[in-house]
Write a structure and sequence with these properties.
With about 130 residues, the chain is an alpha/beta fold. It contains three helices and four strands; from the N terminus they run E-H-E-E-H-E-H.
Length: about 130
């Protein structure tokens, strides 16, 4: 049950944002093996001064089209993580023409007791999920 937060600069169209959501969701399903319908995504659009994303010494030049994906997820294998990173970048580049240099991804690992889907219960622990 990954929770996906997507941060980007203001100025993208509604259609483009929906396509980013759909592409990232399908890549997550494929690489993480999450069940269909397990979709929790949040898009936040920012002013340019709110997302300073620098090079970090890798020689990567970013543009004003930078997009940052942050996923909170159960533990995944190194292979699954690497597949997610690569497939996400490849699909966004192929389908939307995004520059691969403008796509930043971070995963934060948590466990079953860290989730409540409502009603004040930890459904993974109660057996509801």
């Amino acid at each position: 049950m990954p929770l996906m937060r997507i941060d980007m600069l203001k100025g993208r169209t509604e259609d483009e944002i929906k396509r980013v959501l759909d592409i990232s969701y399908h890549v997550m399903l494929k690489t993480f093996g999450a069940p269909n319908g397990d979709r929790y995504q949040i898009v936040t659009q920012h002013e340019p001064y709110e997302i300073p994303v620098l090079d970090t010494g890798l020689g990567i030049k970013r543009t004003d089209r930078v997009i940052i994906f942050n996923l909170v997820t159960r533990p995944r294998t190194t292979e699954q993580k690497q597949q997610f990173y690569q497939q996400l970048v490849d699909r966004l580049h192929e389908k939307l023409g995004m520059r691969k240099e403008d796509i930043v991804v971070s995963l934060v690992v948590n466990s079953d007791e860290d989730w409540s889907f409502g009603l004040g219960k930890a459904q993974f622990l109660t057996g509801d999920l």
